[in-house]
């Protein structure tokens, strides 16, 4: 800690990070041990975070991330969308297909940015806000592939007809972006995705990841 930083705020943020990294919550004693501070300090931190709905405690007294964090998270989408648009525009124009950035929202895949090509006679209408299960469609499957191979680049994922009859998709996961789990992809009206599309989608995913770092 330096003179320009707040020790209390630092501890509160550390509490949120610790809770975000566990599925079953943490007790006051566990938080005290992990933070290296006494239980009284932890109680005060939790009480303050609870007032802002950033933390909740269950009947057993375990602290968990609160719903207030979701409200903050929603404000991230416009920033992520803005950062991703240049790479998506380039991808859509190059491939001649609708390009999209998809993020994880709970158990679903949520399209947060979509760019359609300007020069094609027809293309798939794919709108920002579109949701689908993570295990259907190239965008969600690419994210799941990255979860299964966290230490290596899983490449790209191809699908056909899973979300829309006659449409094929290709997607690659965003890698190395702290706090963001998602993918970049294209969707096109075709029986199969051309060979060059997969590597091009991977390049676009790298560009978006770099813009978000």
From TrEMBL:
CDD domains: HTH_ARSR (cd00090). It holds the Pfam family IclR_C. GO terms for molecular function: DNA binding; DNA-binding transcription factor activity. Residues 6-67 form the HTH iclR-type domain. Keywords: DNA-binding, Transcription, Transcription regulation. PANTHER family: HELIX-TURN-HELIX TRANSCRIPTIONAL REGULATOR, ICLR FAMILY, HTH-TYPE TRANSCRIPTIONAL REPRESSOR ALLR. One of its GO terms (biological process) is negative regulation of DNA-templated transcription. PROSITE patterns: HTH_ICLR, ICLR_ED. This is IclR family transcriptional regulator.
């Amino acid at each position: 800690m330096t003179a320009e930083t707040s020790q209390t705020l630092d501890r509160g943020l550390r509490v949120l990070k610790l809770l975000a990294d566990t599925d079953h919550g943490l007790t006051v004693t566990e938080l005290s041990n992990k933070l290296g501070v006494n239980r009284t300090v932890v109680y005060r931190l939790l009480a303050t975070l609870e007032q802002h709905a950033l933390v909740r405690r269950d009947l057993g007294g375990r602290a968990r991330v609160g719903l207030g964090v979701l409200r903050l998270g929603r404000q991230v989408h416009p920033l992520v969308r803005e950062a991703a648009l240049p790479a998506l525009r380039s991808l859509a124009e190059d491939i001649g297909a609708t390009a999209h950035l998809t993020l994880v929202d709970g158990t679903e895949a949520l399209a947060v940015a979509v760019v359609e090509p300007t020069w094609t006679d027809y293309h798939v209408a794919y709108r920002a806000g579109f949701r689908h299960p993570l295990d259907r469609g190239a965008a969600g499957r690419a994210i799941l592939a990255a979860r299964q191979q966290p230490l290596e680049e899983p490449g790209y994922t191809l699908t056909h007809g899973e979300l829309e009859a006659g449409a094929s998709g290709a997607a690659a996961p965003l890698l190395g972006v702290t706090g963001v789990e998602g993918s970049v992809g294209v969707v096109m009206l075709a029986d199969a995705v051309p060979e060059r599309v997969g590597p091009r989608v991977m390049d676009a995913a790298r560009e978006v990841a770099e813009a978000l770092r």
